[in-house]
Structures are given as structure tokens and as C-alpha cells.
UniProtKB/TrEMBL annotation, chain A:
CDD domains: TM_PBP2 (cd06261). It is found in: Cell membrane. The keyword Nucleotide-binding does not apply. GO terms for cellular component: plasma membrane. It comes from Nitrospirillum amazonense. This is Putrescine transport system permease protein. Pfam families: BPD_transp_1 (PF00528). One of its GO terms (biological process) is transmembrane transport. It is a multi-pass membrane protein. The keyword Cell cycle does not apply.
UniProtKB/TrEMBL annotation, chain B:
The keyword Transmembrane helix applies. Residues 60-256 form the ABC transmembrane type-1 domain. GO terms for cellular component: plasma membrane. GO terms for biological process: transmembrane transport. It is found in: Cell membrane. The keyword DNA damage does not apply. The chain crosses the membrane at residues 9-30, 66-85, 97-123, 135-158, 179-202, 237-258. This is Putrescine transport system permease protein. It is a multi-pass membrane protein.
Amino acid sequence: MPPPTAAAPQPSPALPPVAPRTVKDRVLRVTRRLGLTGRGGVILGPYAWLVLFFFIPFLIVLKISVAEPAVGIPPFTKLIEWVDGGLDVHIRFSGFQALFDDDLYLLAYLNSLKIAFVSTLCCLFIGYPMAYAIATAPEKRRGPLLMLIILPFWTSFLIRVYAWMSILKDEGLLNNLLLSLGIIHEPLKILYTDLAVYIGITYSYLPFMILPLYATLEKMDHTLLEAAADLGARPWKSFLTITLPLSLPGIVAGSLLVFIPAVGEFVIPSLLGGSDTLMIGRELWNLFFNSRDWPSASAVAIALLAFLVGPIMIFQHFQGRDQDKGAA
Amino acid sequence: MKKSRLPMVLLGVGLAFLYLPILLLVVYSFNDNRSLTVWTGASLRWYHELIQDGQMLEAAWLSLRIAFATACGAVVLGTVAGLMLARFGAFRGRALFAGMISAPLVMPEVIMGLALLLLFVSAEQLIGWPAGRGVLTIVLAHITFTMSFVAVVIQSRLVSMDVSLEEAAMDLGARPAKVFFVITLPIIAPAIVSGWLLAFTLSLDDLVITSFVSGPGSTTLPMIVFSSIRLGLKPEINALATIVVAVVATGIGLAGFLEARRARVREREESQAGKA
């Protein structure tokens, strides 16, 4: 390892007139030329990893979304081939074409957006009072309460979804309870419907909503509320004019943390939803695993990503603001 | 100003919503009946069946090994990434890096899984590596999405940390690497531990990305659980869930206890220092 001093590439001024003698010297010289010593070398690791395993894969998805499906392993054709000394380019957009021709995909996209949107609102309405209550609790109790919010996140996601299956099914615990109380006389059909999907997503993603909300509410200056009260504002009025606007960054961050993954959710609709619960994550899964049509699955992924690029950028903007605070 | 009791009541209701399903799962894991919703008597029948399910035990062991390797890899990369974001100021390509590190936090798993699989398939075609898919590809994929979570944990710890200690060490002539290992690392050690645990848990629990990048012979626990509950309820899964909940609760309880004790010790030391 070279000493981690030089940060930028710099010609070593004190190079010996003779050629470097050892391998170590030679390696040192090359790394120093490339700016890989010290900070540069540290940066390289995670950077290269993310480019290789995060950035390049998306380019490959893009590439394969315009390939032709083929029977074989892997089940798609090459885009560019040398045939008889000439370059043969196969690009087709039929994968994307199918997205527009077949109502199924359009409906699945729209339904995913609807389900994600409604679930996000549910999370917000349930999560906001919870975050508010924790943020205004005595300081000693905030830590344990926050722990209670995070705790379910440490148990398995799959198992938490499974828990709802036994609650919501026709002869499940909820129906049994309602029947024995005489509120209903026939079991409600909830499991394997869209309603169960709403419940499942709201339940699973609730902590993701509460944490950013808590972070902004906790930082809030409470003397503002006291000032408002002194000036005669009713609690509701000061909540609407002070607390709510100030917690807007938390609302946006929390909503995006729920909304974006919920649009592409696969596990919850396939366990709690019915066969008619169309969601795009599920269609992508089916295209890939059941139809083995990798190019069309890639086209679905690209289209989904195109929908989500806007929300993801907004999320990163908020995320980046915190990061810049750290960098400053 | 009179404080409204309403938020506290709603918090209680919300916590009940979060915990009741898990509690029911635990209670019914001791139920003798297969139907899962009618209580017929206490029994350890499902635990007994669980530990005799060789396929499930094998998958659990595989998942634990994958999670261990993932957590170790992710904690190194994630710590460095968090350090870069919190301490390195503006470096070339910072915007792209910040984007790539925070995108996996929200990226739908089906997209990440598909993208990583296509990478592995293309790389195999091109350079013959990785040959086939299995534990290696699962670990690589898991490190990629869990390191973002580690980076967030580390970064927020670094941001809230007192920088003057690092500055003092540098003023006294310590090199950056020495400052990191002697000053920064011990201070952020608790955050590194929670980052490791977070990566471990996320890896242990992942179904979607794993399904895309796994190969024959590398069936993880979530894959088995998913395929068995897809067809309906299975009481064995309740027993499994109870074990998971017990382990997590014990771990968290222990961490809380240690933290409280440390805080007490610190308090006592501070009060003694005050007296002296």
C-alpha cells in the first residue's frame, strides 16, 4: 500500500534518474500517476463497485429490452453480430410495442400507481400522528418509542405479510371476531382482494413513513408553537399553519420512501392480492419466470423505471440535502 | 399551552396495528390445530415439524451464511461510501455517486433483481465469470443493495459526530488514514455494528432479488417460505416466525440493556469528575 498522502495526480519531482528498481516502486509510480493514492484509492472501491453492479446492469437491461426473444440460454438474441464479414444489427421495439398493444400492461401500470398512491396516503394518515406523538413525548421516552417503530422492521418482511393472511382470510381471525360480535353475519371476503393489498402495503411500509416524519418533527422549534398559542391561535390552527408546513420535507421523503418501492411491489400482491390484482411488479415477474420472455420483462422494467425516475430524483434531492449538510 | 392527548392515543392505536399481527402469529404457533384460526390447545407440534424439515433447515443455514458474507462485505463498502459522502467534500463524480448510493434505498426490487441477473448472464457470456449462478451471485447482489443502507447509517453518524477531534489529530500531524483508524473508527463503531446487523437482516430476508440471481441448488429460506405460503397457510411458518421474533427481541433487549448500562456508567463518571 502506498502512503495515503498524495490526493491528486502529481508528477513525482524527486524521481531517481535511474529506472525504478523494484516492482513496488513501479506499482507506486503507476498508482500515483492515476491519482489512486490516498483519497483517490479510497474512493475507487465503492465507486467501481456501484458502477459495475448498479450502473452497468441498467445499461444491459436497456440493451436487452430491444433484443429479440429466442429459444436458448440466455433466451435473447445478440444485438450486433458479424455475419459474412458485415455488421448485422438487430434492434426491435416489439417488447415496448406489446406494452401499448396489450391492455394488461397499461392497466397493471395504472393499478400499481393507484395502489401505491392510496397506500402512501394511508401510511401518511396513520404515520403522521404517531411521528408527532413521539416527537412531542418527553425526551427520555423518545428513544424507546422509536425503537418500537423500528423493531418490526427487524423481523422478516415475508413473515409480517404472512401474518395478515391468517387474519384476513374468510374463516380468519378478523372475520371470526366480527361474526362473534354480531357485526357481520357472513364472512367478508378480504384476502385475495385489492383491499388486502392496501392493508399489506400500509402495514409493511409504515415505519418508512414514520422515521423521516419524526426526524423533521423532532428538529422543529417548539417555541414557534408557544408563540402562536400566546398570540391566541388555537391548537389546530397553529398545527395547520406552523407544524404542517415545517414538516413538509419529512412528508415528501416519507411518502417517496413508501410510494416508489410500493409501485414495483411483488410479494404483497402475490400473497394477499387476488388473481385479478394487477400490479406491474407481478407482471414483470411472470414475464420473466413463467413466460421466460427476458426482452419483454426488460422492456417492462425500463418503462417502470421511466415512471419512477421523477420521484427517485426528488427523493435524491431531499437525501442529497442532508448529505451536503454533511459535506459542508 | 394545553397538550392534546389525541396524538398519544393514536400512537397507541398505531403501535397496536404494528404489533397485533406479530403477536397473533406467535400465539397461534403454539396452537395444536392445523386451521390456525381455531384454538384447540397448546402444543409444540409445529416446532417439532419445523426442526424435522431438512429442506428448510438447509435453506436456513445457507441464508445465514449468505447474510454473514453480505454483511461483512457491505459494512466495508458502506462505511467507505458513508465516509466519502460525509467527509470528502466535492470530489469528481460526487453527484453520480450520491445518486447510485441512494437509489437502491427505493428502487423496486424486481428491477434491481432483473438488472443484476442480466449483468451476471452477460458477464458470463463475455468473460466466463461468474460461471453459473449461486451463492456467489447472491452475495454480490446482496452487497450491492445493502451497502446503501449501511452508508446511510454511517453517514448520519459521521454528520452528527464532533469533527473537532479529527481536526485536532490532524493538527497534531496525524495522517488521514491514521486519523480514521485511531479517532473516527472507534467513535463510529456502534454505527458500524448496527450497519452490519442491518445488512445481515436485509440479506437474510430478501426474496425478490435473490430469486432472480440464484441458481439451482441455492434455495434460500425466504424462497422456501414464499413458495410454501403462496399456496395457503402453513403452521410451521408460525413456529419459524416465533423463533425469528424471539431472536430479534432478545438481541434488541440485550442491546438496550448494554446501552443503558453504558449510559449509567458514563453518568457516574461524569458526576465523579464533577465532584473532583
